[in-house]
Specification:
The complex is a heterodimer of chains A (about 150) and B (about 120).
Chain A (H helix, E strand, L loop, with lengths): L1 E2 L5 H11 L3 E6 L4 E5 L4 H24 L7 E4 L5 E9 L2 E9 L5 H18 L14 H13 L2
Antiparallel strand pairs in A: 1-3, 2-3, 2-6, 4-5, 5-6
Chain B lengths: L2 H10 L4 E8 L4 E7 L5 H21 L8 E5 L2 E7 L4 E7 L5 H12 L4
Antiparallel strand pairs in B: 1-2, 1-5, 3-4, 4-5
Helix pairs in contact in B: 1-3
Chain lengths: ~150, ~120
């Protein structure tokens, strides 16, 4: 498990231990990866993040068209593994969780401990806002350092 | 009245029962529930579904039939579970002073009629 920010580590580790999820990705609503578990290739994680953020954006718009509140979670049930996608609020803005799990656990368990992780993240998040504007000249450096933090290389 | 609602009514009438749920065992999700305030139905469904599923797999590994009734006792009460047909499980959350014998009888009888 790897995370860009240290305060994310403990809630995510706790979630992984309790839920038995195979893959987990935490990202901002724009698809910027915050933490990941189980992915071995940076290309996979960036693709999953972009697709996950796109799906959440689509369902949010669908919910708006239907005149309701946003959907809490989207679950795809598969034969060998399933996938849950859920957006949630944090002091650092709206984040998205993408969780892939197998038959060794259940959607009920994953949802239960995901909600606990969301509460723990809200409590653990630093109150100050360190986000500096992303400038064109340091974009590539920032991207490289993020990938190194997430994959250790 | 549906079989599910009838089952929940029968179980929640037993003294000391704080709530009853019908859950889908494989998913750990609530199908129907009758709960007192303060009982977290989503958590009970997820954890009871996981417990029953693991016990069934354990029993199968040992060459035994799946459990007909599960009683998980804690300091503040118990969780009872009775698997029924179609992967449904009848679950009850009971206080320490509950009439466990009557709850067990009602749950096994009601779980067999779940559809």
């Amino acid at each position: 498990m790897r995370a860009l920010e240290p305060w994310v580590v403990q809630p995510l580790e706790s979630f992984l231990a309790e839920s038995a999820a195979r893959l987990t990705l935490l990202m901002t609503s724009s698809g910027q990866v915050v933490a990941q578990h189980g992915f071995s290739r940076s290309l996979d994680v960036m693709t999953a993040a972009a697709l996950g953020a796109g799906i959440v954006a689509s369902t949010d718009e669908l919910a708006r068209l239907m005149g309701g509140a946003t959907f809490e979670a989207l679950v795809h049930h598969g034969q060998r593994q399933s996938c849950m996608l859920a957006a949630f609020g944090t002091p650092r803005g709206r984040w998205i969780g993408l969780v892939v799990f197998g038959p060794e656990t259940s959607v009920g368990i994953v949802r239960l401990f995901f909600e606990q992780m969301v509460q723990q993240l809200a409590a653990a998040a630093p109150r100050e806002q360190p986000a500096a504007p992303m400038l064109a000249e340091n974009f590539e450096t920032e991207l490289d350092s993020s990938l190194k933090a997430l994959f250790g290389r | 009245m549906s079989a599910t609602r009838t089952a929940l009514d029968r179980v929640t009438r037993v003294p000391g029962v704080r709530g009853a749920l019908v859950i889908a065992a494989a998913d750990g999700l609530v199908v129907a529930e009758q709960l007192m305030d303060g009982v977290d139905g989503q958590a009970a469904a997820a954890l009871a579904g996981s417990l029953v599923g693991r016990l069934a797999r354990t029993a199968a590994s040992a060459g035994l039939r799946p459990p007909a009734f599960v009683h998980l006792r804690g300091d503040a009460g118990s969780v009872l579970a009775a698997p029924g047909p179609d992967d449904l499980v009848l679950v009850a959350v009971v206080s320490p002073d509950a009439n466990l014998g009557l709850a067990r009888l009602e749950m096994i009888e009601a779980a067999g009629r779940l559809t």
